[in-house]
Amino acid sequence: MSNAKQILAMLQSKAEGDDEHFYSIALQVAAAEARQGRRTLAEDLRAAVDKAREKAASGQTVAVPFASPRGDLADLIEMRPPRFDLGSVVMNASLRGRLDDVVLQQQKRDWLREHGKTPNRRVLFVGPPGSGKTMSAEALAGELRLPLFVIRLEGLITRFMGETAAKLRLVFDETARHRGVYLFDEFDAVGGNRGATNDVAEMRRVLNSFLQFMEEPNSTDSVVIGATNYPDLLDPALLRRFDLVMEFCPPTEEEIRTIIKFNLRPMKYPNLSWKSILALAEGLSQSEIARATEDAVKTAILAERKNVTTNDLLRRLNDRRQMQAAFRPTTVTKL
C-alpha cells in the first residue's frame, strides 16, 4: 500500500492547488500496486484519475492547474496558457506523426512506468526562423492540456560566475515540481559548442550543468523543448541527451496554400491566382506568410470589401520579401 510520504506529498499538492502533481503521485501509487499484483486496484486508481482530469478539463480549452511562477522564478520563467492545439498548426505529415507519438507517450505515461519505461520528454526543435518551432511548442502544450513555460534567457544568463548555472538549477527543479511544457527558445545561447574559439569558461560550465540536469529523473515527466535556428552551433553532446530531434523546414506549396486559406478566414477569396501567389511566397517562412495574409485581410476590411483579391496578397507578400531582403548582409567594397 502507499506509504506516508506519498500521502503527505498528495496532501501538500492538493493544498497548493497543484492538481497535476496530485494526479502524478496517484498514478505512481497505481503503478506500485500493479507491480505487487493488485492490478484491479491499480486499474481503479487510474480510472479515478482519468475521470478527475476529464471533469477538471470540461468546459476549458486548456486546463491550467497552477498559477504563474513566483519569487526568484518569476524572472526566469514566463507562463503562457496555450491558445491552440496541434490541429491548428500547418506541418508535414512526418513531423506531425512524431509529435503525435510524443503526445501518446505523455498521455499514457502511467502505462509506460508500470513496465519500467518513461515517456519521451526531451525534444530539440531545429529549423530556420519563422518555421513554426515556437508555435508547435505551444500547440504541443495545448494538446497535452498543460501550461507552456518559456525560459527567459535574459534573466537566466548573467555575467557573474556560477550564477547562470544556479538559476538553471532552479528551472530544472521547477520541471520536477510542476508538470508542464518548458521551452528554451534560442537554445544555442545555452547549448553552444564547448570547443568554439570564442567560448568562455563560464558558458562551458553552464553547458555542463545543463547536460547534467537533463540526465536527472523527472517524476512529473515534464516536456523540455530546446528550439534553435542554428543547430550547427550546438555541442554534439546534446544529441545524446535529447530523446528526439525534429527538423522544421520552409513550407511546401501545399502547406503555403493551407496557411493562406487558414489566415484568410472569414473573408472570401474567389478566383485567386495561386500560381502567382505561390511563386512570390516561395522562400518565405510560415510566420511571414501568415502575417502577409493577415495584412491582406486588413486591407480588404479597411476598403470595406468582403473578399480578398490576388493583388492584396501579392502586395503584402512582396512587402515581406522586401523586409526579408533588408536583413540580408550586404557586401561593402573597399576603395
UniProtKB/TrEMBL annotation:
Coiled-coil ranges per UniProt: none
Ranges for domain AAA+ ATPase: 119-252
Pfam family, one: AAA
InterPro entries: 26S_Proteasome_ATPase (IPR050221), AAA+_ATPase (IPR003593), ATPase_AAA_core (IPR003959), P-loop_NTPase (IPR027417)
Highest taxon of source: Bacteria
Gene Ontology molecular function, alphabetical: ATP binding; ATP hydrolysis activity
Keyword Nucleotide-binding attached: yes
Keywords associated with the record: ATP-binding, Nucleotide-binding
Record-stated family: Belongs to the AAA ATPase family.
Descriptive protein name: ATPase family associated with various cellular activities (AAA)
Lineage: Bacteria, Pseudomonadati, Pseudomonadota, Alphaproteobacteria, Rhodobacterales
